[in-house]
Amino acid sequence: MLLLQAIGHRVMTVCPRYDQYKDAWDTEVVAEVKVGDRIETVRFFHCYKRGVDRVFVDHPMFLEKVWGKTGSKIYGPQAGKDYTDNQLRFSLLCQAALEAPRVLNLNLSKYFKGHYGEDVVFIANDWHTALLPCYLKSMYKPRGIYKNAKVAFCIHNIAYQGRFAYADFSLLNLPNQFRASFDFIDGYDKPVKGRKINWMKAGILESDRIVTVSPYYAEELVSSIEKGVELDNIIRMAGITGIVNGMDVQEWNPLSDKYIDVKYDATNVMRAKPLLKEALQAHVGLPIRDVPVIGFIGRLEEQKGSDILAQAIPLFIGADVQIIVLGTGKKHMEKQLEELEIKYPNKARGVAKFNVPLAHMITAGADFMMVPSRFEPCGLIQLHAMRYGTVPIVASTGGLVDTVLEGYTGFHMGAFNVECETVDPADVAAIAKTVKRALATYGTPVLKEMIGNCMAQDLSWKGPAKNWERLLLSLEVAGSEPGVDGEEIAPQAKENVATP
């Protein structure tokens, strides 16, 4: 949403206050919301960052579960396990988000002052905010509040839908007429067997427009039960628009990246890359050699295909190549990763940590970036890689199809089996075959040309922002007008401005 503000729109983001965020100050504004059978009080914290009002919902249900104090994750105490109060937590978030535009008097922008008011468009993201359109219809519109407001529901990953026990519907404090929108039956035993409620299903049915993060992913979602994860019929009925993501070109900029020693652009990339590769090799303890280096950065889980990659590495590691894998996730996959350097001490490194500086070093210093996802709604890793002149090797799915062109800006491995319980040998073979095809271009004019093609692209949010603007304006909320063309009227300054 950064670029929406840059072309003249007033933009607020609302998220939980999971930590003591720098520059986010207490507005001293509170609101009361009903969560389950209790009335809870939330406080709003705020900062003004890069032209956007950043609002944080403060409540112990969020703040008591921060990483630094407990070692827990945002959604659960450990990967793959949820907090038992997640429905209450995100019910609270949705209600607080509905209050924020009405109760917060924000005046740090030079272009906009005061309350946002009621003529707004809410963008609800994934199952965690799927109650927002339901509360809007049940709690506000009947009272004449938000009469013109609309909701666009954005699906970032269909695999996570918010499926809970059917009896839990009573926790949500919604009228019975919404029950059908949540009603869902599947063949799984978690969290209970049989009939359930499905938050994402309700978000799709109760919102005004459905959006996802790439055109090809939108096609996939309605193509089959497997790709739509049992919501394909619902999405087909509601309709969906795919708008490919952009990337943050300030944080990810090889000319100014604080984590790399040699700054570069398309004019000197071929001189900079060897130096950055040497720095990367030295940092992770690999022999400093002029060989192709492959990087992988991502969560270690089935979606990202890290288990497929682990089985494929022995099939190509015999070539003159090095590979560096960075990521955290499921424990057995982290163990697979850490065993890499034991098996291949001069060719492989596995780093099972969250490490931002190393991610930047790999993106700049590697020659190829591996993205072997079983499914990938959009993906940012391949965008970061191309901006840094690192050629992606990708599975042919979702946004990877929309953003990487075979033989021009990267290499495609074909679509992988979306069955996550096992590793398909055909997918393993596809990785090995494509890696060998990519390695054959190392040191040739072909790879040099591909690097140039990657870096010549505009991967920013400018184009996607205009597409988002057209979609949101089509909702015809009162007072909506197009933004400005040409120069940004609210440039994306790096500074945060704290609420005084």
List keywords for this structure.
500 residues; alpha/beta; six-stranded parallel beta sheet; 18% strand; starch biosynthesis
Protein described:
- This protein is globular.
- The longest helix is centred in the N-terminal third of the chain and has 18 residues, at 86-103.
- The two termini are 24 Å apart.
- The model is unreliable at 486-496 (pLDDT under 50).
- It is an alpha/beta fold.
- It is built from 20 helices and 18 strands.
- Residues 4-236 form the Starch synthase catalytic domain.
Low-confidence stretches: 486-496
| Helical coverage, percent range | 25-40%
* Main sheet overview: 6 strands, parallel
Secondary structure: number of strands:
18
Radius of gyration, CA atoms, in whole angstroms: 23 Å
Overall SS class: alpha/beta
Strand order of the largest sheet: 14-13-12-15-16-17
Query: What general form does the structure show?
Result: globular
Strand content: 15-25%
Distinct helical segment count:
20
Short description:
InterPro entries: GS/SS, Starch_synth_cat_dom. The chain is α/β, with parallel strands linked by helices and 500 residues long.
Chart the SSEs and their pairings.
Blueprint: H1 2-6, E1 12-16, E2 25-35, E3 38-49, E4 52-58, H2 60-63, H3 67-70, H4 86-103, E5 121-125, H5 131-140, E6 150-155, E7 163-165, H6 179-182, E8 183-185, E9 195-198, H7 199-206, E10 209-212, H8 215-221, H9 225-228, H10 232-238, E11 241-242, H11 269-284, E12 293-297, H12 306-316, E13 322-326, H13 331-338, H14 340-343, E14 348-351, H15 356-365, E15 368-371, H16 381-387, E16 391-394, H17 398-403, E17 411-412, H18 425-439, H19 445-455, H20 462-473, E18 496-498
Parallel strand pairs: 1-4, 5-6, 6-10, 10-11, 12-13, 12-15, 13-14, 15-16, 16-17
Antiparallel strand pairs: 2-3, 3-4, 3-18, 7-9, 8-9
Helix pairs in contact: 4-5, 5-7, 11-15, 12-18
